[in-house]
Every structure is written in C-alpha cells, then in structure tokens.
Amino acid sequence: MNKKQLIAKLSGSLNLSKADAERTFDTITNTILDALKGDDSVKIAGFGTYKVAKRKARVGRNPRTGEQIQIAASQKVKFLPAKALKEVFNK
Amino acid sequence: MNKKQLIAKLSGSLNLSKADAERTFDTITNTILDALKGDDSVKIAGFGTYKVAKRKARVGRNPRTGEQIQIAASQKVKFLPAKALKEVFNK
DNA sequence: ATTGGATATGCAGTATTTGCATATAGAAAC
DNA sequence: GTTTCTATATGCAAATACTGCATATCCAAT
C-alpha cells in the first residue's frame, strides 16, 4: 500500500476529501518529525515509539571492490513497536 | 513527547477538538495496522515504510541464569525511514 | 502520459542489533 | 488514584543492518 492508497482509505473512514485527508496526514507526520528534529522521542501508546538513534562512525567495506572505507557517524529514526503491536503478529 | 501531547498539538494544527484529533489519529494508525496484518507493507513517501519482518527462530539466553533457551520465530513491524528523513538528521 | 526521483535487490564481510527473563521505576491511561 | 504499559539493565549467540553501486521497478508529480 502506498501513500495514495492510504489517503484514499482515510478519506473514506474520516469522511474527508482526499485533499483534506492528505493535509491531515501530512500535518501528523510533520508534527512527529518536528519532535524528532528537536531530539525528542515520540511515544504512541499501543503503536510504538519513534526515536532518533545516533550511530557511531565505523569501518565498512565496499562489497564490490573489497576495499575498506570509513563510514561517518550518522543519525537515523528508529521505530520500536509497542507490545500490543507485537502480539498482533505473533498469535 | 507522548500521545497526549501529540494529540494536543494536532488539535491545534488541525483545528479539531482533542477528541476528534485523537479519533483521527487512531483511524490512521489502525488503517496502517490493518494493512500490515494483511501482510502488506505501507509506504509513505517522504516519511518511511512500515513492513512486517519475519524473524527466524534462534538460540537465546536467559541473562539472569545464563541458560540457553530456544527462541521461536516471530514477526515484528519494521519502520524504514525514507531517504528524505535520513537527510534531515545528517546535515 | 511522461519523467525524474526514490526504492528494492544482490553481493561480502564486519559492526550492530536483537531478544531472551525478570524486577523495578517511572510514565501514561482510564 | 489505580492500573496498565514501557524503559532499563544484565550476558551472549545468532540474525540482521550497513556500505557502494548497477539495475530494475515503482511511485509522485508535472
């Protein structure tokens, strides 16, 4: 399912136009992103937690040539599924 | 930031009551979860992809006693941040 | 409808993460 | 205010992520 299909579903469930559904959805993701940019984590009960994970610089390897390369430190968004979410898939 | 705070923000941005903001938010998460339950992945452009990852059974260990235990195969929801999302945090 | 951009895949080897049990502390939900 | 949920911390084995890069595919926006 891609974003367009998701928006179409939401448009129906929420009784909104597709344009409004998309605006609503974007507002939510942007709000989450803003919190993450401020180095805050976002906990959503029953769904999961978004947090920014810092990754240290390390040595990697180009699989094609085999040569070693330095990988810079970076940050990425991690999503940790809530307990309820795991249970859904493991029964 | 927890769910309550997120809902409060959305209530303001979307010009909805907190109850409506929460209903809207829950509708979205449920829609995503339903797709995942159907073993479908959910791609959201500019944000990321949710997918169900199957994890193989393996040998684990009880950290308290040190004894080895068998861990069953399981499934969990994975979130892969979109490229745009990584860039936000690495500049 | 076309096109530009984003993502999936495969590859090799190493670094990182995962997930186990369990209690407690702290936070959040009702 | 009470109850439910989540983070944390522990050691360790095995699964998985990550890197460059080319190709194929797929999506989004024009």
Number of helices of chain A: 3
User: What's the story with the biggest beta sheet of chain A?
Assistant: 3 strands, antiparallel
Lateral arrangement of strands in the main beta sheet of chain A: 1-2-5
Instruction: Enter the CATH topology name of the largest domain in chain A.
Output: HU Protein, Chain A
Beta content of chain A: 25-35%
Architecture of the largest domain in chain A, CATH level 2? Answer: Irregular
Estimated helix fraction of chain A: 40-55%
Q: What is the average of the pLDDT values of chain A?
A: 86
Shape of chain A: elongated
Class by helix and strand content of chain A? alpha+beta
Question: How would you name the oligomeric state of the polypeptide chains in this document?
Answer: homodimer
* Number of structurally distinct domains of chain A: 2
CATH homologous superfamily title of the largest domain in chain A: IHF-like DNA-binding proteins
Number of strands of chain A: 5
Describe, in plain words, how this protein is organized in 3D:
The structure is a homodimer of 91-residue chains. Chain A has 91 residues and is an alpha+beta fold. Chain A has 2 domains: 1-40; 44-91, IHF-like DNA-binding proteins (HU Protein, Chain A), CATH 4.10.520. Helices cover 43% and strands 30% of the residues of chain A. In chain A, the strands form 2 sheets. Chain A has a 3-stranded antiparallel beta sheet with strand order 1-2-5. The two termini of chain A are 23 Å apart.
